[in-house]
């Protein structure tokens, strides 16, 4: 009986221990299931966060590409501004040369005008002397009047040449005004381009500041998520492929920009060649004008020679006059008889001389008016040249200010490059951090697979043990039933 009781107690204890083990195993399985669910939820959240991070990284890559394009455009604008400044310097040098040439031409014209005034005075004196001689020798007077008319024709020709020269000066002045207008327009465009560049640089700095703050927030979020995340691997190859694709696109765009810059440089070289050809044409025109001036000087020299010949003829006429005076004294008696006729002739000659004097005075007045007009035009040209010099000084000041602005823009560009490099380094650190996170997630997934396998193995073992325990319980129940039956049989 004691054995049976002990045996029953041991069976009960076995059943209790088996039940306790079953409950403990059930609790463990439930805990593992809860942990598995939590891990699944955490993995889903982490996958979503990683997707969001991938999208943000792609957006940042697009922003970086945009900033690189803006940098390239800013560099191209700076190169264009430098080329325009060089062209302005070349034009300024050509203007200075033109100013010097115009000043020399004006001095030459003034000298010619002075020489012509002296010639006119000498012609006036010779005319007065001829008036004195006209009373005695009418035929010689007529010859001298013809010579004077020829000289007047030559003076009119010179006047026409001066008019043509004045028209050329006016045309050059108009060209200078047009070039100055073009320069002012180009200066306005350069100022507008510099303003646009400053606005673009300010916008880029603001975008960089916002990108920096967003990246700082992302780093904080990554530090917070770093405590929960263990690993992620699936997006590594995709990110590397995207980076390689972006690199290839960047290389292609850089090559295209190089080709475009080379084409622009070729076009600028062609423009410079055209400018050189125009300068050569202008130099040829100036040489032609110098030849015309030399011909005018030769004509003036011939006129001076003619004036000297006139003076010689006047001296000869004086000598002849003296001889004629002697002859007049000898033939005074004869002249008294012909005095009436001579008086009539003298009255006619005086009328003709009065008419010629009035005509000469009218011509002289017109010449003085034209000379005054030419002097006024020359003074106006000198004033315009001074104004051009003042405008050139203003242009030089604007060029210095533009150089300062270019230096400032270069400093801003260098600052932007430094910020861009810093942002690139931060982006690289983020990518490295994401890579480490991916590696951790990969390790976590591997460990999770191992744990799942272990859990499934434990479940299988538990199932086998449950079956064994159930079989044991059945065997024990059978044994108990057999014992009971044996007892009942004994009692009977």
From TrEMBL:
Ranges of compositional bias, category Low complexity: 321-334
Disordered as annotated region, ranges: 321-346
The protein's name in its UniProt record: Uncharacterized protein
The species this protein was found in: Pseudocohnilembus persalinus (Ciliate)
